[in-house]
Amino acid sequence: MPTVRLRAAAEYPPSSQKLFEASRAWFNYDFAEPPAMSRVMAWDVEFGGPHGRAMKRAMGPGEFTRGEKEMVAAVVSGINACEY
Amino acid sequence: MAGDALWYEAAQVVGITNALNVAADTLDGLEAVDEASAPPETRALFAEIRDFYERDAIPPGFHFIARDPAYAAEVWAAMRHAFADHRLSRRLKEALAFAVSVTSRSASGAAFHLSEMRRLGVGPRGVMEIVGVTQMFSSYTKIADTLQLEPDMGGIAPEDPSPAPGGAPGEDSPLR
Predict the structure, then answer these.
(1) CB distance from A56 to chain B under 8 Å?
(2) What is the number of domains present in chain A?
(3) How many Å apart are CA B150 and CA B112, to the nearest integer?
(4) Alpha helices (H) in chain A, listed in sequence order
(5) Mutate which of B92, B141, B156 to test chain A, going by most A C-beta atoms within 10 A?
(6) Is B46 within the bounds of a domain?
(7) What pTM was computed for the model?
C-alpha cells in the first residue's frame, strides 16, 4: 500500500494537468487516471518537470529505438527489484 | 518489442550477465586461472570465447570460474547462446548487459560490455542514451519503492497467446 495518498488527477492544479496530458501522449494510452508515477511526479512540478523532460530526452529515439530503450528500462527496473 | 520471445531473450542476457559479474567482482579470494599453465580444455575455452568476441578480452568472471573447466564451458555455452543474434540483436544485448552492470555497480561488467557496445558500432551518443535510460529508471524505481507504489500499467501491453517453442496447443487448449 502506498505510503502517501495518491491524489486523483482532478485534485491537481491546471499546471499539473499539462503533465498528465504529456503522460497520456507519451504512452499513447487512455488511462482512467494518470499512472501513479505521473501523479507522484506532478506533486511538485519543479522536480517532476525537469525529471520528466530528462526522461523523455533519454527515452527518445536516437541510436537506439524507443522500444529498445523500454527494454533497457525494464531490465534496470528488474535489477533494482522494483515491482512498480 | 511485442511478443514474449523478445523478453525471454532479454531475461537470459540479464541473468547470465549478472552471473558473470558476481564472479568477477567478488571472487578476489580465488586465484585467477593462469592461462599459460592451464589444461588444454581451459585454453580451448578461452580461445573460443575470444573468437566470439573477436578480440583478446574475455568476460572477467571466466578467469575465476575456469578453475572448473567443465563448469565454465557450460556457463559459456549458455552465455554464447544468450548473446548471439536471435530476435534481439547482439548490439542491443550488449546494451542491456551494460545497463545491468551499471545498475548492479559492477565496474568490471560495465567496462567489458561498454567496450563490446563500442566494438559493435554504438557511438558516444548511443552510449549516453543507455546511460540516460539507466540513470532515469534508477531514479524512478527508487521513487516508486520509497512511496511503495503498486503496479498500475500492466494493461498497456497485450498478452502473447503463442505456445511455448516446440509446443502445440492441446485438445482442450484455448489456443486451438
Answers:
(1) no
(2) 1
(3) 35
(4) 14-27, 36-41, 45-59, 66-79
(5) B141
(6) yes
(7) 0.90
